[in-house]
Design a protein that fits this description.
Elements: E1 7-11, H1 16-27, E2 31-36, H2 39-51, E3 55-60, H3 66-78, E4 84-87, H4 104-131, E5 135-140, H5 154-169, H6 173-177, E6 179-186, H7 192-200, H8 203-208, H9 215-227, E7 235-238, E8 245-246
Parallel strand pairs: 1-2, 1-4, 2-3, 4-5, 5-6, 6-7
Antiparallel strand pairs: 7-8
Helix pairs in contact: 1-9, 3-4, 4-5
Length: 250
């Protein structure tokens, strides 16, 4: 797939990794739908991309709201797409408690944000992508979904594990919808927040922590999966200090 002149949705594009992905896609010539729950951030990123000579449209949308998801896809359709969907938005949610102490509505919201929303957005994009001649989806999971040890947010880990399996389950989608779905599984990404958290750790824990993943490595992995038309249902794992690793298809 060529990125130039395509319409690309990036969720959680108002900051962090999502913003960097949006910037790269805009630089490659895509029209980017900058979707974020923070409308101010979405507008700031969109304006910045336009000021740089790119094309972008902000969408203020809560992915926990069905109307918000529909608004994102409708915006992309109004621009002649979508051709690309990057399911980047996610997180632990706003509650101070995690499963099993968290209220059921709170841990369910984390599952919905990290798994339900990407599934529905992908579903909403299938028909318009097919009409436009095909498309590509990249899901951003997390190493939390691949590990076998304890984790502070079981609901987040479970959702991210589900996102990996959701991706591999759709390996044959090109034959039915002409849409490819792939996944990137990064370890701890070296954004400002991660560097700050590392700096606050005791020296021993900091020394034992794996190297942070350069944000540009994540962005490049996303773009590689978008443009490589041989990739469908595949998972790229990014581990600190190691080369990107493609999981076996079987």
């Amino acid at each position: 797939m060529h990125i130039e002149k395509r319409v690309a949705i990036v969720t959680g594009a108002g900051a962090g990794t999502g913003r960097l992905i949006a910037e790269r896609l805009a630089a490659l010539g895509a029209t980017v739908v900058v979707a974020d729950v923070d409308g101010t951030h979405a507008e700031e990123v969109s304006h910045d991309l336009v000021d740089r000579g790119g094309r972008a449209v902000p969408v203020h949308a809560d992915l926990l709201d069905a109307a918000g998801r529909s608004a994102i896809v409708s915006c992309a359709e109004s621009l002649g797409g979508p051709h690309v969907l990057v399911n980047n938005a996610g997180g632990w949610g706003g509650s101070a408690h995690r499963y099993p102490e968290a209220a059921a509505r709170d841990w369910r919201a984390v599952l919905e944000l990290n798994l339900g929303a990407p599934m529905e957005l992908t579903q909403l994009c299938l028909a318009p992508m097919s009409r436009q001649g095909g498309g590509a989806v990249v899901n951003i999971s997390s190493s939390a979904g691949m590990e076998r040890t304890g984790y502070a947010s079981p609901e987040y880990a479970a959702a991210k594990a589900g996102l990996v399996r959701f991706t591999t389950s759709l390996a044959a989608l090109p034959t039915t919808h002409d849409v490819r779905v792939n996944c990137v599984v990064p370890d701890w990404i070296g954004l400002d927040r991660a560097h700050a958290e590392l700096a606050e750790m005791p020296a021993g824990r900091r020394a034992a922590a794996p190297p942070l993943i350069p944000p540009g490595t994540v962005v490049s992995a996303v773009v590689d999966l978008l443009v490589d038309e041989s990739m469908s249902g595949r998972v790229v794992v990014l581990e600190g200090g190691r080369e990107p690793r493609l999981l076996a298809a079987t």
